[in-house]
Amino acid sequence: MKVLIIHASFGSGHKRAAQAVLEELEQRGIAAEMRDLLEFLPDPMSHFYSFAYEFMITSSRGLWRLTYNVVNAPKGPYRPAKAITQKWQFSRLKKFLKNNDFTHVIATHFTPAALLTDWRSMKELRCGIFSIITDHEAHRCWRRTGLDHYFVASSRVSSELQQIGVPEKGITISGIPISKAFSTSLSREEARKSWNLPEQAKVILVLCSALTLKKSVQMLQDFAALNTDLRYLVVAGADAAKEKRLQQKFAEDQRFTIFGFTSRIAEMMRAADLIVTKPGGLIVSESLAMGLPQILLEPIPGQEEANARFAVEAGSAICVNHKRGIYKDTLFQIISDPAKLEQMSEAARRTGRPHAAADVVGTILSRFVV
Fold first, then answer.
1. CATH 3.40.50.2000 region(s) of the chain?
2. DSSP codes joined into one string, 40-84
3. What is the model's pTM?
4. 183-351 CATH fold
5. Per residue in 25-79, pLDDT tens?
6. Is the Cβ–Cβ distance between 149 and 181 less than 8 Å?
């Protein structure tokens, strides 16, 4: 058995899900490697796709909504391996697959899953093909028959696949794979000690890496206006200039501890009482697995709206759009009502699937290995 996990680095969610599956495979001693679809594209196309995606979700949400809806409209399946305008871009990936004897390929993005099923239908590949849908909605690009098995986040996604002819037995409601770090035995007290946080304080984890500097400042100023003894762990992201500006802006307020990029999000979640974040499929799944209530920030059209709706309907989250005062009011509403905070935490624990990666790998090993 030799496994390829392939993702596409549009945002970080597809990659983090792939890493979680790789972690599980390696723990079981199974030969596996992880690759990014974009590394196989011609360089101009790789840069163009990355730029276009980032531009639309940060600076032109109307254009992203239009693109999402237009691509979602056709009734036929997404067929990049047969589309004249696209198929020429993927020759390096096809060559790579033919030169390696992968027995199973697990895709956490819809394009490689679509490519592989088309190539297999044309007798150009023979490996098993598995798709992990990393959001709470099955966009048309995810929906297709012909692969071996789907792993999905919820019953809603399963129903959407069944409506286009995927048999129920071809779908496992596993949840979205997340790292084992989010099911660690590290206690809340140990996590707080590692971040120098008072044991009795209410701690708010704020992820603003996906927000502009202006919106990040406005949100933190909103929180700062709360006359409470809350403590804030703020992750600014990989933008060093943004991190420095936020640190300077809130240097006099001892309630704020501001970081740049960190790989210790699971520890920070364990220490926190609530998280403020964008509703990406992975961060929502990680928060649910940790039993962490969420304030979800202005979802991008399409998949993030579906992720936010799932968490809100589960009772673990409140979703807000950017407006001065809304962050302060929403946080105060939750944090000043201990019963509400506990209800949201319990809803998160009830909904979370911390062992999704193990369920994915276990299903493949039990049903799709000769």
1. 2-178+354-367, 183-351
2. GS-HHHHHHHHHHHHHHHHH-HHHHHHHHHHHH--SSPP-TTT-T
3. 0.92
4. Rossmann fold (3.40.50)
5. 999 999 999 999 999 999 888 888 888 888 888 888 899 899 989 998 888 889 9
6. no
